[in-house]
Design goal:
The structure is a single chain. 33% of the residues lie in helices and 26% in strands. By secondary structure, the protein is α/β, with parallel strands linked by helices. Among the domains are: 158 residues, NAD(P)-binding Rossmann-like Domain (Rossmann fold), CATH 3.40.50.720; 61 residues, 2-Layer Sandwich (Alpha-Beta Plaits). The strands form three sheets. Strands 3-2-1-4-5-6 form a six-stranded parallel beta sheet, sandwiched between helices. A six-stranded mixed beta sheet has the order 8-10-9-7-11-12. Strands 14-15-13-16 form a four-stranded antiparallel beta sheet. Helix 1 crosses helix 12 and helix 6 packs parallel to helix 10. The longest helix is centred in the middle third of the chain and has 15 residues. It is globular, with a radius of gyration of 22 Å. The mean pLDDT is 95. Bound molecules: NADP nicotinamide-adenine-dinucleotide phosphate. NADP nicotinamide-adenine-dinucleotide phosphate binds next to helix 1. The site of NADP nicotinamide-adenine-dinucleotide phosphate has 26 residues, from helix 1.
Length: 400
């Protein structure tokens, strides 16, 4: 793209869409203009002139004068249809839709290749933290060994308030919903799915490995109680929901789970709605990025940064992925994902019966009282998959 004003076709005018609109209006350097905005609800009052809006996606997708389509809707399936149509039309796309990206990554990668277009998505993981471009560019030549990230502001907010205000999960969740820090249906956040989608994106840019959401374990905080917070606090620890990726020989261990985090850990002090990602490289050692992980303006600013990057023809080069593909590596199919290992976890339970579904190799500690029961044990990661998205189970599992 040249120095001319950039024409943007925008889908979605909710939290992030409006954030982008505001941030763009304050931008000094970027000459960009939102031409049309695609939305869904005819009856919603709008903050800007009605002439901006359309309810027919073709009004945007069929235009041939747009430089970029920005997709910021909350429906992953429709988002995929919009994004793939735009790419097939040869238009560059910016999105923040981690669910759509994680569920369709292979296809979206191919569409970029086939149509020679850019698909940028910095706002989809870590909100305002520029983690994707850093992993892609800065750590390109660095031997990355791991990343660990607090990637969901809602969970971190709930965990921080439970600990700092000594309150139970349900009370804080209700309050978080009332104050806009949690969705009315918080399942995707609290059960670790949102963190899973972001972890999948970080895995692509860290290691060049494309994984499908069903291949990766995600456990959330939906069963946490104040007793678990007390257990952590007594040991000087904090509980954080982490998305993690580790290199292990030629394979990779990727999973999402609550973790006990020590005071000396950089992620310990990442509290409330903040996100933090620690990246470890062979020569750079550990580095931590911290920032607002969500919200209208922080995410809008990440989207704006992507639009700006398109003005100098920036595309993700997918160097790690490409290198492995050329070497006929199996990473595209996720065959290098290692789920065959065991790990030490704290498991709080009500009935011992509930533990039977897990492959427990060794129990190090067992505690039972009228109030709470827990074990600290080594379990196989594979057996924990029965808890992924399981609404019936009341077990709380936390990596030690
Ligand atoms: N909120 C955050 O902090 C945050 C952070 C990072 C990434 N994201 C991602 O950004 C995206 C947008 O999130 P959001 O929080 O801005 O959502 P939101 O506040 O719920 O707004 C969603 C917008 O999408 C529009 N929409 C929904 N279905 C549509 C359809 N079929 N066609 C056209 N428009 C449609 C809605 O239209 P109406 O206005 O007519 O209802 C609304 O304007 C999601 O993928 C989300 O995961 C959000």
């Amino acid at each position: 793209m040249s120095e001319k004003e950039i024409s943007i076709g925008l889908f979605g005018f909710g939290c992030v869409g409006q954030g982008l609109y505001d941030v763009l209006n304050h931008s000094q350097s970027l000459k960009a203009n939102i031409t049309t905005i695609g939305v869904k609800d005819h009856s919603k009052p709008r903050k800007i002139d009605a002439s901006f809006f359309t309810f027919k996606k073709e009004d945007i997708l069929k235009r041939d004068d747009l430089d970029v389509i920005v997709e910021l809707i909350d429906d992953a399936e429709e988002a995929f249809r919009i994004v793939s149509t735009a790419m097939n039309n040869g238009v560059n796309v910016v999105t923040a839709n981690k669910k759509m990206l994680a569920e369709n990554f292979q296809k979206l990668y191919e569409l970029q290749e086939q149509n020679n277009v850019a698909l940028l998505y910095e706002g989809s993981a870590g909100g305002s933290i520029p983690i994707i471009r850093n992993l892609e560019e800065y750590y390109d030549n660095e031997l990355l060994s791991s990343f660990r990230g607090i990637l969901n502001g809602t969970c971190n907010y709930i965990l921080s308030r439970m600990e700092l205000e000594s309150k139970d999960y349900s009370e804080i969740l209700k309050d978080a919903q009332a104050s806009g820090f949690a969705e009315s249906n918080p399942w995707l956040d609290v059960a670790g799915f949102d963190t899973l989608y972001k972890t999948i994106l970080l895995t692509v840019h860290s290691f060049g490995l494309i994984l499908k959401p069903e291949q990766v374990l995600n456990l959330g905080i939906q069963n946490i109680t104040f007793d678990d917070i007390v257990y952590a606090r007594e040991k000087g620890l904090r509980i954080k929901l982490l998305g993690t990726g580790y290199k292990s020989g030629n394979e990779f261990r990727v999973y999402v789970m609550p973790h006990f985090v020590e005071k000396t850990d950089e992620l310990y002090n990442v509290i409330y709605e903040y996100n933090g990602v620690e990246v470890e490289g062979a020569f750079s050692c550990k580095q931590t990025f911290v920032g607002k992980g969500a919200g209208s303006h922080p995410t809008g600013s990440a989207v704006l940064s992507d639009i700006s990057a398109l003005t100098y023809n920036y595309k993700y080069a997918y160097k790690k992925l490409r290198k492995l593909l050329n070497g006929k590596d199996k990473r595209v199919n996720g065959e290098q994902l290692d789920n065959n290992f065991s790990l030490k976890v704290y498991i709080r339970f009500r009935e011992k019966e509930e533990l039977k579904q897990l492959e427990i190799l060794n129990i190090e500690e067992e505690y039972r009282s009228a109030r709470t029961n827990y074990i600290v044990a080594t379990v196989t990661l594979k057996s924990l998959f029965c808890l992924k998205g399981n609404k019936e189970s009341k077990l709380f599992v936390c990596a030690v």
